[in-house]
Amino acid sequence: MFTAKEKSIIGFLGLSAVIGFSIIQFKEHKKTDFVVVSKEEKAKFKALADSIYSAENKPKSHPIKIIKHPKEKNSKIEVKFVNINTANKDELTQLPKIGPVTAEKIILYRNDFGAFKTVDELVKVKGIGKKTLEKIRDKIILKSEDK
Q: What's this model's pTM, rounded to 2 decimal places?
């Protein structure tokens, strides 16, 4: 009645319909669970965002002016030492090779694992390798928030 190719196509269509129906049933059955999680996550996110926002408004780092090179008269640049345990996103992006995305990753790592104990611990943050660490090492200080 049907060729082998037609049978396989009919089987494929039938299987696709069963899988699609199963997915729809699963989503409808689990809908309330997802709503509860979403509300909890939204509350946690709002609390975290509020705490980060209030922490960002506190001054953390102090700029120091130095002479860049003796051959350039009256040429001063601002060198900023950044406390990686308390710095906000804007302060972290002042470091060479650290953009907004990497700054966010540093903050997330710090929130998840606590204050950095050594400068070398920065290589555990995705996006910071040994070369980047060497470029920023002399511009970083480590102090806890309570000190």
A: 0.47
Q: For the domain made up of 63-141, give the CATH fold.
A: DNA polymerase; domain 1 (1.10.150)
Q: For residue 23, which phi and psi values (nearest 5 degrees)?
A: -65, -45
Tokens, residue 100: 């907004």
CA–CA distance, 59 with 42 (Å, rounded to integer): 28
Cα(94)–Cα(32) distance, rounded to whole angstroms?
Answer: 45
**Closest alpha carbon to 136 in 77, 90, 79, 89:** 79
- Residues 125 and 105: beta-carbon distance below 8 Å: yes
pLDDT tens-place string over residues 85-121? 999 999 999 999 999 999 999 999 999 998 999 999 9
Q: Which residues contact 143 (CB under 8 A, 6 or more apart)?
A: 83, 85, 86
DSSP secondary-structure letter at 97?
T
Is 81 in contact with 97 (CB distance < 8 Å)? no
